[in-house]
Design brief:
Largest interface: A-B, 61 and 52 residues
Number of strands of chain A: 0
Number of helices of chain A: 12
Order of helices and strands of chain A: HHHHHHHHHHHH
Shape of chain A: globular
Helix content of chain A: 55-70%
Strand content of chain A: under 5%
Number of strands of chain B: 7
Order of helices and strands of chain B: HHEEHEHEEEE
Radius of gyration of chain A: 22 Å
Structural class of chain B: alpha/beta
Number of helices of chain B: 4
Structural class of chain A: mainly alpha
Strand order of the largest sheet of chain B: 4-7-6-5
Largest sheet of chain A: none
Distance between the termini of chain A: 32 Å
Helix content of chain B: 10-25%
Low-confidence stretches of chain B: 127-132
Mean pLDDT of chain B: 86
Mean pLDDT of chain A: 84
Low-confidence stretches of chain A: 1-63
Oligomer: heterodimer
Chain lengths: ~300, ~180
């Protein structure tokens, strides 16, 4: 019962932290708890950069059983998609066309960051790395995100069309991943699908408004769609990892029908056509990325790399 | 109401049940830092309290995946239980079953409305529905109780709220979204 959160077997526990000398009165009270917990945490994870180690030790808490190498790689893919998109959307804070939209994009980014944290935390259990190790200390070729989330924010239409494509895809993905035979992935998906449903609605409303708005907003929407549509195919490619995972994962190719049905219905209403033309080569799942990712990572990682172990 | 889990192997079950319930009551006093009128029990965030000897393990679940208040709540749970004399307090973050606004207690909804925030209306359906058609119940203005309100922004001051405006009394207000 307590095995999920304790550090039984750790050489650091018991001797200093839970010995009878601390069971007395001096560590009672709120300060005592904080000290005791932070001691425990620093004992556990002194080698890691960890922003959120205050009281929870999510590494040990959430992953009831560690991920196998294939499940970890899969979680890394999904986690990186969410992380990179969250980082992109964060840029809009204070820059969106209106205050309400500023708040909306920030909220969506926060949800995505929550998904990324859960997924990366799980991925890290396979290699004894924290979510922060994975987010801040990997090099570009070690990231597994698709090219669509790497595409620049562009103008507001580009950001909205990217949101549209990603959230329709994620909704299909998480709807099905709830039935995963991997309990941790199923739990993360069941949580995420409800939030992504709101993201999908947000992107839908904006797409209608922009596509059916002024000549300018429509022209920009068409440009954004032409720019981003080539990256859609990569979302739906199966590969050997997916086949090995079987019912623990969702085969991306199987999501295409649901995605197309939703997009086709919306496009009919918005008077849009899916562009026909070249398809981007992709490669994100194998660590081959667009020219944009490295700059984005440099900005995202600079603080953690300059100040290893920094906390606040 | 006490949703405490009891170790079936332990001797003296009723004593353990009582002790677990007492620990639950302490944890249940912790308030949401963003919505101080609601406790984590009202919100449905407090899921389980387990006692194992001197150790108390409290399970909480986030409302939204990225909700930053969860860490503050976890810290407050540790503080509250430590103040009450528990030495070994652990907080566990659980994701299953996923939180839903349906878990908010009726008392919590009443407190929320009194505080000026419209409580969730209707029940959650996401993930069980496909297609873009949405039906939503009218949201009642917490100030004048009018149903003539409109959504200004789907995403509000925190992940769990949307921004509304009342067309009768013209006051803006927060609405706790159905999730």
């Amino acid at each position: 019962m307590s095995g999920t959160t304790s550090t039984e077997g750790s050489a650091l526990e018991g001797s200093e932290l839970e010995g009878p000398e601390l069971e007395g009165s001096e560590l009672q009270g709120s300060l005592g708890a904080g000290v005791q917990e932070s001691l425990r945490d620093s004992a556990r994870s002194s080698a890691h950069v960890e922003v959120d180690k205050l009281f929870l030790d999510p590494e040990l808490i959430e992953a009831e059983s560690p991920a196998g190498p294939d499940a970890a790689e899969y979680a890394l893919r999904l986690g990186d998609d969410a992380l990179i998109l969250a980082q992109q959307l964060g840029w809009w804070i204070s820059r969106a066309p209106e205050l309400e939209e500023d708040v909306a994009l920030a909220n969506i980014a926060l949800d995505l960051l929550g998904h990324a944290r859960s997924l990366l935390r799980y991925a890290g259990t396979a290699s004894d790395r924290t979510e922060d190790d994975l987010a801040y200390l990997r090099e570009e070729p070690e990231f597994r995100c698709v090219h669509l989330v790497e595409q620049p924010n562009g103008d507001f239409a580009h950001t909205i069309i990217r949101q549209l494509l990603v959230s329709y895809y994620l909704y299909e993905l998480y709807s099905r991943l709830q039935a995963s035979t991997d309990a941790t992935l199923a739990a993360i998906a069941a949580k995420a699908v409800k939030e992504v449903d709101y993201h999908r609605d947000h992107a839908t409303q904006w797409t209608l408004r922009l596509a059916l708005g002024t000549d300018e907003s429509r022209a920009r929407t068409l440009t954004a769609l032409a720019d981003l549509w080539p990256y859609v195919d990569e979302l739906f490619r199966d590969d050997p990892l997916i086949r090995r995972l079987g019912d623990a994962a969702v085969a991306p190719a199987a999501l295409r029908t649901g995605f197309d049905a939703g997009i086709t219905a919306l496009f009919a209403e918005a008077d849009l056509e899916p562009p026909t033309g070249p398809v981007a080569r992709g490669g994100g799942r194998d660590g081959i990325h667009s020219e944009y990712l490295a700059y984005l990572l440099a900005e995202m990682q600079v603080l953690a790399r300059q100040h290893p172990g920094a906390t606040w | 109401m006490v949703n405490a889990m009891v170790d079936q192997n332990a001797a003296g079950q009723s004593a353990l049940e009582q002790a677990t319930a007492a620990a639950w009551r302490v944890a249940a006093t912790v308030a949401d830092p963003e919505l101080p009128v609601l406790t984590i029990e009202d919100l449905g965030v407090l899921r389980q309290v387990e006692l194992d000897g001197d150790a108390v393990t409290v399970s909480i679940t986030p409302t939204y995946s990225g909700c930053p208040a969860l860490e503050a709540m976890a810290a407050d749970v540790v503080t509250a239980l430590t103040d009450a004399g528990y030495h070994d307090v652990r907080v566990k973050r659980v994701l299953t079953p996923a939180w839903t606004s349906d878990w908010m207690s009726e008392a919590g909804k009443a407190k929320l409305e009194k505080f000026g925030i419209a409580p969730p209306s209707g029940t959650a359906a996401a993930g069980r529905r496909s297609g873009p058609i949405r039906l939503s119940l009218a949201v009642k203005c917490p100030h004048c109780s009018s149903l003539n309100t409109r959504e200004l922004a789907h995403f509000g001051s925190t992940s769990c709220k949307a921004l509304y405006e009342c067309r009768e009394c013209l006051e803006p207000f927060d609405y706790f979204k159905v999730l």
